[in-house]
């Protein structure tokens, strides 16, 4: 049989007048079990219960780890299967010259595309794609998340020499590294560089994040995180929906225009 035992520690109180310590016990907690009356203080029984609880917690933690492992495996399996579909979408979208331009300019990306950037995107932006980036640098062995490479393809323009600007980000959208833009000499390039220097959350600041000094990189990545997260987890999976939505809107406006 079991009796009730209060196992909370005794409290010490010190009287201000006598400065003496007196020991007293608070009321017994009615929810703590102790061993049978034959056990002097129940300490062996409590230790045994704690050992059992520890084993129980270990089993719970093991189940959590197994669940997380299976979730990762399942996600990777479906991500792999989706690559074929993304490639098919890429080939189809190439048949629509302004597909990705329309997606970017009519999506939530608008808040990160400003002034000079709008000129570059609207005139020379051709294509956007995401693939898994290889992380083979020994210095990056501590990276736990999968790294994704975001590639932005451009036609010849007045701002930079590059055909492709790329950014590597983690699953959560944080910038891991990026290419170095080779700027041209001219007014448009100067305007873009000035925008980048403000460190405001814009698309071209996102492109050039790894060019900032090391002491600024981590803080800037946190500011730019929402851009990477949106591109990876919202815009990329639903690109056609975004394009179709603005196409329907444009058609409706044209149909309702006065003759």
Automatic annotation (TrEMBL):
Task: Give one GO biological process term.
Answer: nucleosome assembly
Signal peptide, first to last residue: none
One GO cellular component assignment for this chain's record is:
nucleus
Q: Which PANTHER family match?
A: TESTIS-SPECIFIC Y-ENCODED PROTEIN
| Entry's family note | Belongs to the nucleosome assembly protein (NAP) family.
Q: In its UniProt entry, what is this protein called?
A: Uncharacterized protein
Which lineage is the organism of this entry classified under, starting from the top rank?
A: Eukaryota, Sar, Stramenopiles, Ochrophyta, Dictyochophyceae
């Amino acid at each position: 049989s079991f009796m009730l035992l209060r196992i909370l520690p005794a409290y010490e109180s010190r009287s201000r007048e006598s400065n003496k310590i007196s020991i007293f016990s608070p009321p017994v907690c009615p929810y703590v079990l102790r061993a049978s009356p034959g056990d002097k203080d129940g300490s062996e029984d409590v230790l045994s219960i704690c050992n059992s609880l520890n084993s129980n917690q270990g089993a719970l933690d093991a189940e959590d780890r197994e669940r997380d492992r299976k979730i990762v495996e399942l996600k990777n399996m479906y991500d792999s299967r989706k690559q074929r579909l993304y490639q098919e979408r890429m080939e189809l979208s190439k048949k629509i010259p302004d597909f990705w331009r329309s997606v970017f300019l009519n999506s939530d990306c608008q808040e990160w595309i400003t002034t000079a950037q709008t000129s570059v995107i609207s005139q020379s932006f051709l294509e956007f794609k995401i693939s898994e980036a290889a992380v083979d640098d020994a210095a990056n062995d501590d990276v736990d998340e999968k790294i994704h490479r975001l590639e932005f393809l451009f036609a010849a323009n007045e701002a930079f020499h590059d055909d492709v600007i790329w950014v590597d980000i983690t699953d959560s959208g944080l910038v891991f590294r990026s290419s170095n833009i080779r700027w041209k000499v001219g007014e448009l390039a100067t305007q873009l560089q000035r925008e980048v220097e403000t460190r405001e959350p814009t698309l071209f600041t996102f492109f050039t994040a790894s060019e900032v000094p090391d002491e600024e990189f981590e803080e800037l990545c946190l500011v730019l995180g929402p851009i990477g997260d949106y591109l990876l987890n919202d815009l990329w999976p639903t690109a056609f929906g975004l394009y179709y939505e603005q196409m329907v809107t444009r058609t409706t406006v044209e149909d309702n225009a006065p003759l």
